[in-house]
Write a structure and sequence with these properties.
The structure is a single chain. By secondary structure, the chain is α+β, with helices and mostly antiparallel strands. The protein has two domains: 7-149, Regulatory protein AraC (Jelly Rolls, Sandwich), CATH 2.60.120; 155-260, Homeodomain-like (Arc Repressor Mutant, subunit A, Orthogonal Bundle), CATH 1.10.10.60. The chain is 39% helix and 19% strand. The protein has ten helices and ten strands. The strands form two sheets. Strands 1-7-2-5-8-9 form a six-stranded antiparallel sheet, with helices on one face. The protein has a four-stranded antiparallel sheet with strand order 6-3-4-10, covered by helices on one side. A hairpin with a 2-residue loop joins strand 3 (52-56) and strand 4. Helix 2 packs antiparallel against helix 3 (131-144), helix 5 (178-184) crosses helix 6 and helix 8 (226-232) crosses helix 9.
Length: 267
């Protein structure tokens, strides 16, 4: 099996002129995180099994099953994959498709997933006018039409808010009040409220719920029961957790994950 963390040392996607190159990698160890790096090509990070977290300078992006995170060309990023996960990487030549100039989480259709899987089995030096080249053009047209999902946690790298985010990711059940968090980072409650709104466009409470949503999706994607996830996030009842989840994503957790895992049993 390929090792995601050895990949940058053994393969340079920028060395190939193809409009799109794909890789499929199994990851055995979630205790390490890929160092920050960037490519001339843009990159789509696709979760084929398990969950992937992408970190960029101003935020954290979750890649649950049936979704992908688009990372524009030249943007430094780092990836972490859940235990025994499988990851798909699609590298796109700048200007080859009408893709966003900013990071975003994209829903991935079964057709697009199959196209990426197929391309991952092809050599990167395929001719542009051959069958694989024509397939790559269809793939990129499909990718540009995929809808975005809001699975992003905005937070600046050097911010005091990042310290709170790191603490909550380490222990998402921590139910300290905003006043207590403010004191922890040597701010007044009002200053923390202003900082959260200025940096994220969200109130502190909404920002914390977004973090809970990201952690919940990570754990649900590897099969953790809803009741356990609810307890791990510090919710007083399962129904309160389900209400939060449904308000954010429009579906209860079980239905949301079932809809996105329909294709996963094939892999």
């Amino acid at each position: 099996m390929s090792d995601l963390f050895a990949f940058p040392l053994t393969f340079d996607p920028d060395a190939w002129p193809a409009s799109a190159i794909a890789l499929r990698l199994d990851v055995r160890d979630n205790g390490r995180e890929q160092p920050f790096h960037c490519h001339r090509k843009g990159q789509l990070v696709l979760a084929l099994r398990g969950a992937v977290t992408c970190t960029v300078e101003d935020g954290i992006w979750l890649v649950p099953p049936q979704c992908g995170v688009w990372i524009p060309p030249g943007l430094p990023h780092s990836n972490r994959v859940s235990d025994n996960g499988r990851i798909g990487l699609l590298f796109v030549e700048p200007g080859a498709a009408a893709l966003p100039a900013h990071c975003c989480t994209l829903a991935i259709s079964p057709l697009l997933r199959e196209l990426i899987e197929y391309l991952a089995g092809q050599a990167p030096d395929y001719p542009a006018d051959g069958p694989t080249g024509r397939l790559a053009r269809v793939l990129l047209e499909q990718l540009a039409s995929m809808p975005a999902e809001r699975l992003y946690l905005p937070v600046a790298t050097s911010s005091r808010l990042r310290r709170i985010a790191d603490a909550l990711i380490a222990d998402p059940s921590d139910r300290r009040t905003m006043a207590q968090w403010a004191a922890w980072v040597a701010l007044s409650e009002r200053s923390l409220a202003r900082l959260a709104l200025a940096e994220t466009g969200m109130t502190f409470g909404r920002w914390r719920r977004q973090l809970h949503l990201i952690v919940a999706l990570q754990r649900l994607s590897v099969g953790t029961p809803v009741q356990i996830v609810s307890q791990d996030l510090g919710y007083e009842s399962v129904s309160a957790f389900i209400t939060m989840f449904r308000k954010a994503l429009g579906q209860a957790p079980t239905r949301y994950m079932a809809d996105r895992n329909l294709a996963e049993n094939r892999y």
